[in-house]
Amino acid sequence: MTSTTSPTAVDATAVVESVAELVRENYVFPDAARQLAELLRRRNAEGAYRTGSGSAEELAEAVTADLRSVNGDLHLALQFHAEPVPPDRGSAVLAAMRRDFDASLGGVPRVELLDGGVAVLEIGPKMFPLDWAAQPLTAALSLVAPARALVLDLRRNTGGDPNTVAFVCGYLLDGRTHLMTMLSRQGAVAEQSWTPPFVPGARFGASKPLYVLTSGKTFSAGEELAYDLQQLGRAEVVGEATRGGAHPRDGWTVHPHLELSVPVARGVSPVSGTNWEGTGVRPDVPCDADAALDRALSLAVARLA
What we know:
This protein has helices at residues 12-26, 30-45, 56-67, 91-102, 130-144, 162-172, 221-231, 292-304; strands spanning 77-80, 110-114, 118-122, 149-153, 178-183, 189-194, 210-214, 236-239, 249-255, 258-263, 266-268, 285-286. By secondary structure, the chain is α/β, with parallel strands linked by helices.
């Protein structure tokens, strides 16, 4: 007999129960966590997640919509992966990121020197884990260090490792600098993010003009890099408001093709006392993302002149 079920068919009831319990136990906002767990269990009992095809992809879309219905947290998601993912905590997103890393020159797909001594450095599509990204980032950031001005392009950067954010900031700031404080579910200080005391290679430094390009797709750790540099007065942000996801997340595999993403901490800037959650990073120079590079270059040339 030929099966009519999807190759990614899933027991929705069991998966949603696992999701509800993981959210209840781990989401950084306990009140919202309880509310979301109750919502998922009620919807599950009502049969809201049973579809005709029984596919994991459809379940992911439906559950994600409900996860975001309470407070709009874009880091809350049930993510579908076409390739089977390992069961270890956090391993699903790392497997997907590794494929992107290998296809993007280690996360620095563009390094270019333009007229007038203005360098353009694109970091994307992710802020890859630092143990992967340190070497290509060191090479790229050292290469642009002698430039008279730097345009840092984050328009296609959709997140990643906060440690990599701190590493990049180490090339663009002088001295050890406090970037972010992470608060736990209980509201206690869980971790602080500082620029490293030493970076390999040459620094661009803290005195030359720096512009950061953003778009409506820039997200998470990509947003943090723009936000940190903006709040510290180090860079002008040029482009569009970003997506607005500020909470560090962790991941749990709940099915061979499904990973639950849950924020487990809350970042607070030592400068602003808050973060960009829900609002996005607001550009200093608003313009369409497609026009952001030209706008930043004109600002750089004018300032250098």
